Queue: 3 jobs
Job 1
Amino acid sequence: MEKFRIEDITKENIKDLCLICIPPEKIDHPAFITGMEEKRKWAMEMLRRRGTFAKLSYRESTTVGLIQYKPVPQERVIYIYCIFVPEKDQWQKGIATQLLSSLIADMKRPKLWFDNKPALALTTRTFPGAKSGQFSARLFFTREGFKLHNFTKSGKIR
């Protein structure tokens, strides 16, 4: 498996975070330019409040994947919002696995959010769909050892 460079989000690479979700053909579209600026502002605020909230994967200087998450301090849990490898030619090359492994390793270390204790668990909510040729997020996370739970409308596990 090819080794990709994984970096935490910093002020220096926020632009990469904002660009990875935009299709290359839409980069100059006014709505996407506005969205990128709004995401940049949001990302700067998250850095200020949390210190970190995402990791990017790079192949040389090209951003090829991301994992975005948030701490839930009262539960000592990390909630994964998104794991994304946008380009089809990058799928199934280990990018998402390396991003998740990096996050798991990082969350085993004490965190200020958790009173200098490590996270107790990582959790996510996935949807079952996937593009042709792509693993669904649900399949990816179950293959990585996550357990499936059915939830009631109130959010409780059945």
Job 2
Amino acid sequence: MIFYAWTALSDSDPAALGDSDPGALSDSDQAMGDAAPTAPDGGRPGLPRSSVAMGISDDRGRAMKAGEETLGSGRAVVVVIEAVRPAMAPRTLAPCYVRTGVGWLGRCTAAGEVSWDRFFIRGRPGDLEVPGRMGS
């Protein structure tokens, strides 16, 4: 069974996604790297700083709708949705969700619509050696 975990992010800080989830940045954000313009506070405009809303759904459409509502309210600048599957953590057997490697990045367009871009998270070396682990 696949679920869709979504997180709405606000403000500007290049490290918010860059360190934790490089796959969530658009190609243009990654290509700009250090050359991207900076905001007065030193951050890059349009890159997120903090989570303002999150959830999990068994329906991608509902997750996208919830993300679109948060973007439309102006509380968030970007929404990240990732396909996840239920799993158990090694050693503790605590229930958790594991990334499947595919996600969607939602942003408002100039026309006020939400544009969704699909992205893929590459696994790290050794991920195949540990069952249930991919890019985490």
Job 3
Amino acid sequence: MFVRFFIFSWIILGRFFPIVFKVLAYIFHSRQNSDFARLKERFGKNTVLRPENKILWLHASSLGEISQAVNLISELKQKFQTEVIITTATESGSNFVRKNLPGCVHQFAPFDAEPFYKSFINYWRPDFVLILENDVWPSMMNTLYASDIPIFMINVRASRSFKKFPVFYSILLKKVSFFHCRSNRVADQIRDLKVDHKKIITGGDLKAVGGFPDIDKVEVKRLAKFFSDRKILIAVSTHKYDEKLVLETFKVLNSDNGWLLIMVPRHPERAKNIKRNIKNYGLKVCQRTQPEKLSNDCQIYLADTFGELGTMLELGKIVFLGGGGGTEGGHNPYEPAKLGKAIISGPNVDNFSDAFNALEESDGCIIVENKNQFLKAIRYLEDRKNANNMGKTARDVVKEFSDPTKNIINFIKIHLIGQRQYYD
């Protein structure tokens, strides 16, 4: 009863007091350092003209979600001769679209208030919407459903939120037309939320078959030369809990100052706090976004930037992948695996359990639960032969994951395009 009241209240608040959401949108937009001229996109107002063609709307939360869909978007445009408008919440997502999907229109996603979504839908008039992964909101889903726009959630991942808030998600997901789930395990989670099994297709993970992360070879060469006298540990997609484990372990590991830690936090905007925590451990840190010059006594290189994960990964062989130590559920292991890196992770990897199970069973990664296990794993991988073998295994494992693009395209053709004559 409380959950239904909360959803109702949220929608009513957005409907009659959108100024509240405008303030929140302004704060979020500012923190993203986005172009102020594009702020009105978050209110559902266009900043570019609508193409005179059929429109397919694809929504993704951020860079991690949209980057998996490049091949799918190309197939959609070619197969259905349609324009694709892409919405993301973040600046990093916008930058990725501009750089990698120049044939698509990007707009920032409206904040979750009914008037904003109505404005967006009335202008763009999409035939249907594809939502990558799990980014659903009450007013968004309610407005789409009321506008009779089919919703297809793609590459749905396992989520602890589904278990923690089952009533909330059951209400929202009833408005979804169809689901593509990464695995049978995810499909079971969706069915547990009282979704009709006929709405669900399974198999394949877009993240597993996406392209390689961008690598700036010139920058790799420059940094590799500067750090050439060090052994390198790379910690990527880290959160607060991960960083505590990494810093405690690194303090012991680097007792002879022979190592360098490259830290790539999941949320770079936390850099100020991370830097303060590093100094509390008595370690010398250099921050990538600051003008401070790299020095020979630098022990930790804090890469607090967006879109440079591939560049940072190229600098070493041993990678600690964050998200597995706290409640985040783990992060995508495919990118370091494709690059042949030796992966270490915490144990809480429900979001990518299929991938980690396959990697662990094949000795393509190491799961650690504490500092001693982490230190032992690094000492093992310090032997380049061991690291190379594990990296090769990881690369071979992820090659075996199937590509769901064809099945998604066929499903759209049958169930969403249907009898629309203008798609022929």
